[in-house]
Amino acid sequence: MKGSTKEESFNVSEFIMHHIQDAHEWHLWGKDSSATSIYLPVILWDNGLKLFNAKHLYHGEAIHIEGEEPVHYTVGTGAAKGYALCHEEIYKIKKGGLQFHEGHPTNVHPMDFSITKNVLALFIGSFLLVLLMVSTSNFYRKNGAVAPKGLAKFLEPIIVMVQDDIAKANIHGGKHKRYVGFLLTVFFFILINNLLGMIPVFPGGANLTGNITVTFFLAVCTLLITVFSGNKNYWKHIFATPGVPLALLPIMIPIEIIGIFTKPFALMIRLFANMTAGHIIVLALISIIFINKSEAWGLLSVPMALFISVLELLVAFLQAYLFATLSALFIGAAVEEDHH
Predict the structure, then answer these.
(1) Last residue of some domain: 115, 141, 158?
(2) Of 62, 87, 185, 225, which alpha carbon lies 20 to 30 A from 301's?
(3) How many other CB atoms are found less than 10 A from the CB of residue 115?
């Protein structure tokens, strides 16, 4: 065949998307048939509960369709027979395989409750969060108000910072105590998962905080706490803004209501975009070596990728700090008393 001797070109976008998107496997190293991965459980609801290992999908029959946008997908075998995996989405198939329209499958989606890479990363991050907080709490419960040691010595300054510089500084009148637990949880959850997605000893690190579903949920938590904590003064500023002429209220009220939702929306996009962008930049710099097919380019791309990775350490902490601070600011505005 004409294309059989042609060397396959390096696809940068496919390489980057493979690393930042969610998957039904946890890829460790290697490529194609020689790759080493942890295959995760697939849980589908399709006229009943279907359970099988993702290996049955990844090691099924590989199909390649040529066109303006070439499409790759695999047809499941064994327990996964009747399903296909395309762009990490699972579809039901009948005779003839997947059907496509403008490069996108049109087959039916079964309800997917699988333990994907991001879900597993969520479990790991949550476990570490609980482990850190319980260990620190047990230290003080056992020893009382003493000088911290070990893990508590490291965590206490951060906890005090969140309590005093984030919660107390933005939620006044002693009301911050009700919200310190939430703000600490949000701060450490984001920080831990930001770091887990970066460290090299976490092979194929999951881009959990770069998943918009996760940042959406965190933003919704902030929105619900803000709305349900809102006092009479808060809602007065929404529906009867002081100092605004009565004739302008029909304009101001919709703007204020939209503002309730745009604030957490900005939280969601900021965290998602910053963490995803950092991963994309590092992977793009590494891709320079493969694009030019020369190890010599590593003398340029590797130091630059290392610099961006170090910068991402700062961003990991900064994004956790900003999310917690802005959440505290929104909550503080909702519980602020009228001073006039």
Answers:
(1) 115
(2) 87
(3) 15
Q: Is residue 277 part of a domain?
A: yes
* 107 and 189 fall within a common domain: no
Nearest to 114 by CA among 180, 164, 55: 55
Total domains in the chain come to 2
Q: Are residues 160 and 271 in the same domain?
A: yes
Query: How far apart (Å, rounded) are the C-alpha atoms in residues 190 and 321?
Result: 9
In tens digits, what is the pLDDT along the chain, a chain of 340 residues? 333 334 456 777 777 777 788 888 888 777 766 778 889 999 999 889 999 999 999 888 888 777 666 778 889 888 899 899 988 899 998 777 788 877 788 888 899 999 999 999 999 999 999 999 999 999 888 888 888 888 888 899 999 999 999 999 999 988 999 999 999 999 999 999 999 888 754 556 688 898 999 999 999 999 999 999 998 988 988 888 888 888 888 888 999 999 999 999 999 999 999 988 888 888 888 888 888 888 888 888 888 888 888 888 899 999 999 999 999 999 999 998 876 5
Closest CA to 60 of 42, 80, 46, 44: 80
Same domain? For 81 and 223 the reply is no
User: 137: domain range?
Assistant: 118-335
Give the C-alpha separation, 225 to 330, whole Å: 9
CA–CA distance, 278 with 287 (Å, rounded to integer): 14
Q: Are residues 201 and 212 in the same domain?
A: yes
Q: Is the dihedral of CA 137, 143, 148, 151 positive or negative?
A: negative
> What are the tokens at 178?
């009700």
